[in-house]
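Give me structure tokens for this 330-residue protein.
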Amino acid sequence: MKQLNFESEVHVDNRNFLEKFLEKVAPKKFEGIDWARWKRKNLTLAGFGRFCWAIMRTIIIVGICFMILYPFLVKIIVSFMSTNDLTDKTVMFIPREGSTYFIERAVMNMNYWGSLVNSIWLSLIVAVLQLIVSCLAGYGLARFKFVGHNLLFFVIIITLIIPPQTIMLPLYVRFRYFIGNLSLIDSFWPLAIMSATGLGLKNGLYIYLMNTFFRGMPKELEQSAYIDGAGPFRTFVSIMLPNAYNMMTTVFLFSFTWQWTDTTYNSMLMPDMVILSNTLFKVTKGVEDILQQQTLLDTGSLLMIAPLLILFLFAQRNFVQGIERSGLVG
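Here you go.
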């Protein structure tokens, strides 16, 4: 009997080895788990299949992330190399000497700090104006029916299809001779006017996003406000806009980012303006070596997108929530 009891105790200890090990590693995480049910669910052929798929899925995700981040990481590493590291064939990823030469040269050639301030002001003005216009137009098209409603919405969708290159010449002539010989070229005014009138870069997309969002909001909110005596404008400002905060953040970030990185309108309407999208092409000034030119371009592009990464770092939560409710896929 004693021998049987001993074997029974050993059998129980072996059976509970996994549970005891996991509870020692992370006692709070595995506390209260029904291990018998866990074994029936996972220690089967189906459970083994799920485990294999989880491993494959992790490998695929890591591989895709590596393919996306690899060029970005290479640019960062190259930016901190010295001129000797570039020509040294034994240097692969880790700089042997290390230097901030290319960063300092890019900052100097781009007039980085002055360009950064001007780019912030320009992108901020355009983003705010496009956000205001998109909210007003999106809400009006979503909630009010009037003559030409469908035609106007169709025209807005058409603006998403027409390439901006097709209207570059008329736009340039219009702002070059705005009133008589008054020229608005090389100022913020052309982009500000276009944004305020709903004709700015990607403005049709922002109106569509806000329109889709407001259509999805329950009409009972507005009806309750109307019963309490609020008019359409007060209802829009006090009821609808606070509920559209995440979508407004998404539209603002889209507008700010596209204006920040735009080269079509910026180079046409502001060719001599000191902004990052223009000065990036001057980053190789005074450098004849092709390898160093490429390194300076990589460094300049990193310096250009660095403020955007910081902006998205703080606004990513609202951005993701806005995308989820925007209706965009892919």
